[in-house]
Specification:
The chain is built from nine helices and eight strands. The chain has about 250 residues and is of the alpha/beta class.
Amino acid sequence: MTHPANSSSRIARGGKALYGAPLGILMLEARFPRIPGDMGNGTTWPFPVLYRVVGGASPEKVVLKGAAGLLPDFIDAAKDLVRLGAEAITTNCGFLALFQKELAAAVGVPVATSSLMQVPWVQATLPPGKRVGLVTVSGSTLSPAHLEGAGVPLDTPLVGTENGREFFRVLIKAEKDDMDVALAEQDVVEAGKELVARHPEVRAIVLECTNMPPYAAALQAEVGLPVYDIYSMITWFHAGLRPRVFA
């Protein structure tokens, strides 16, 4: 008896705990609302993802205190995601660029810790003399070490949201669980406008914070420049894991 030529295609390969979600996301431990567009909202993604909350890794510890002492916890959590089935790892805080090299070395799969890693790519698209600028949740604590971890030039212009009325105090200071979305959007837009006003050479913006994608369209409309964020980076990252199959 002969077997159909495609009989081997009926063999399902095992070895993992979960399937169909090749991207693992390391999450900070927080209670603020994650609206659609936020990295921590599952409906944001046009593909399934795996989440793992890193206990004790609050936004305040990571953003304001340099994630001191948290590297082993992030490595353990990343390894757990890989054991579950993740084929690549990312994180939901741009400040974790500090751990880019260590995480990549520890887990054995591709790692993209921070939206900031897009800066060299975006810079390559701009005319001579024009620059990428950054909008970050905390300009005062985004240090040279963070920029170096993501391969970002140390003289890159940036503006934070610390002086806003809502975004910083809800996400980082955890002053309340609820968030006024309109005020949060205004904080991000105003930071972007300040960036462009202070640095007229800026011709593209990268948003560091993974909670900012819901406001990227409003900022782009206001300043008239390309705006890149964690959504643009991770959809690119995932495309390499699961390339589109064309008919």
